[in-house]
Design goal:
Keywords: Membrane, Signal, Transmembrane, Transmembrane helix. It is built from twelve helices and ten strands. The protein is of the alpha+beta class and 390 residues long. The chain folds into two domains: 118 residues, Jelly Rolls (Sandwich), CATH 2.60.120; 221 residues, no CATH class. The radius of gyration is 29 Å and the shape is elongated. A four-stranded antiparallel beta sheet has the order 1-10-5-8.
Length: 390
């Protein structure tokens, strides 16, 4: 009998809680009740346990006097939502242990999940509220803004929770981008087959004796070379967005790229990065001309530029192929930066040695002058680039 009464009491309490949540869902939450409640963090609070050296679930009997409470916010799964915060006393908000904002008591505050994701580039962040004991008077809700033109939606079943389907704009972009790159390379192979076979030949790359009268070398800014440079720029732009999609910001790309992540914005980013890469190659050739004239290396400048273009085409095309496998078939790679540094460092060091051997075989140049020339045009830009990339 007592067991039956206990079950009945629990059922009544559960029904009462569901009715309160359903009423809140219908009426709205947050400032002026302008948001639909997606998820409440009332049962997700955490506190830091000094003994365990870790965050543990909040228990009113133990942590009622805790000066700070925290919650893990899933940014990746809650894109386009708003995080709503309310405290009845003045408190401070910390995100990943860094002070974010002061909250005045008795007011609602909203944080855009998209903005937080773009700022931190992490799937989850730890939000902490410091300044008052326990969780009394604190509310944190994941909400979705109501539309002014939207008609009220009446749910027939209060237990049903419907959320927008998550989708990956990057995935769609990479699929079309791959087709675009394949079309460009197929067109170059059809129109400039001889140049294609030379530029993409590893044996020709490592050949120390170079024919400087070759049409690809003696005319470095010809239409053929510029078209292959443009295709290389498209490949590098593709790789740039691939790295960006894995939350690795290269050259402060958060300030370079816009905040939107729809397909049109990604296409704009792609064209912008590709144009910048293309202009950087032209700037490198201009730098080779200037430094080469200072060292009186005019005869090897074109060979140097040709080897740079040829090695870059082979390396970045191979990296692009591996990136495509990872995008469509491979698992998510944690700490991608560590995996990027090794192949890129090896590539630039091997290319530096190759350039030294090729130029040394072309003309009787003193090694000290040649090393100084290569350090200025190869190592210094590389060191500066690594400094700003990391």
């Amino acid at each position: 009998m007592r067991r039956g009464l206990a079950v009945l009491a629990l059922s009544l309490l559960h029904s009462f809680a569901l009715s309160l949540f359903a009423q809140t869902t219908r009426n709205g939450v947050g400032p002026e009740q302008r948001y639909y409640a997606v998820h409440s963090f009332a049962d997700d609070w955490l506190v830091y346990d000094e003994a365990a050296k870790a965050y543990v679930p909040y228990l009113p009997e133990i942590h009622a006097d805790a000066p700070a409470v925290s919650a893990s916010i899933d940014l990746e799964s809650n894109r386009h939502y708003q995080l709503l915060l309310y405290t009845d006393t003045d408190t401070y908000v910390f995100i990943n242990a860094a002070l974010k904002k002061q909250l005045l008591g008795g007011r609602w505050y909203t944080f855009s999940i998209d903005s937080l994701y773009n700022a931190y580039r992490q799937p989850r962040v730890l939000l902490s509220i410091y300044g008052s004991a326990g969780v009394a008077g604190k509310q944190m809700i994941m909400g979705y803004p109501k539309s002014i033109l939207q008609k009220p939606v009446v749910l027939s079943d209060d237990n049903l929770s419907v959320r927008p389907r998550t989708f990956s704009v990057y995935q769609n972009f990479f699929g079309l981008g791959l087709l675009f790159l394949l079309a460009i390379h197929a067109l170059l192979f059809s129109l400039y087959r001889r140049a294609f076979l030379v530029l993409y030949d590893p044996r020709d790359l490592f050949a120390l004796r170079v024919r400087d009268e070759s049409f690809l070398i003696n005319r470095p800014l010809s239409r053929t070379v510029l078209l292959f440079l443009l295709s290389l720029s498209f490949v590098m732009g593709y790789l740039f967005l691939f790295v960006q999609s894995r939350n690795v910001n290269v050259f402060s790309s958060r300030t370079l790229l816009l905040d939107q992540q729809n397909f049109g914005a990604l296409l704009l980013y792609y064209l912008l990065v590709s144009v910048l890469v293309f202009l950087s190659f032209l700037g490198k050739y201009l730098m080779l001309q200037v430094v080469g004239s200072l060292y009186r290396f005019e005869s090897v400048v074109n060979i140097h530029f040709f080897k740079v273009v040829q090695s870059s085409l082979l390396f970045f095309t191979a990296i692009g192929f591996l990136a495509t496998i990872v995008i469509f078939n491979g698992p998510t790679i944690e700490n991608l930066t560590n995996y990027l540094l090794i192949p890129f460092t090896v590539f630039y060091l091997v290319r530096l040695v190759l350039l030294y051997l090729v130029i040394r075989a072309q003309a009787p140049i003193k090694s000290l002058y040649l090393i100084s020339y290569l350090c200025i045009v190869e190592l210094v830009p590389l060191l500066i680039g690594v400094r700003f990339a990391l």
